[in-house]
Request: fold
Amino acid sequence: MTKSRENMIADIKQNVLRTRQYIGKDQLTPRVIAAMQNVPREQFVPVEEKILAYADTPLAIGHKQTISQPFMVAIMTDLLDLKADDTVLEIGTGSGYQAAVLSPDFHHLHLGINISVW
Reply:
């Protein structure tokens, strides 16, 4: 794992501790941490944002959309508390990063893509 990914995971863990009174937990499941470590976030951001790919901040991905802050992706994934036989429908997948974080564990992942017509 790259140093940038290690730092992102450390930031996520720190944010979990800072927000534990709101989210009701002191740590994320090992499955979520592993998914965050293994999904290459730099592949979901434009070339000009790759240097910031592992910063704990949302990044512009074009078309007035952003890729969510890694902490938000991790906490949303963890709080879903999905089981392997659950079905997930993600509408408006944006960059696809959230879906990629979910995909290793779930065989029933359906994506809905927003298409704008001018």
Notes: The CA atoms of residues 35 and 66 lie 20 Å apart.
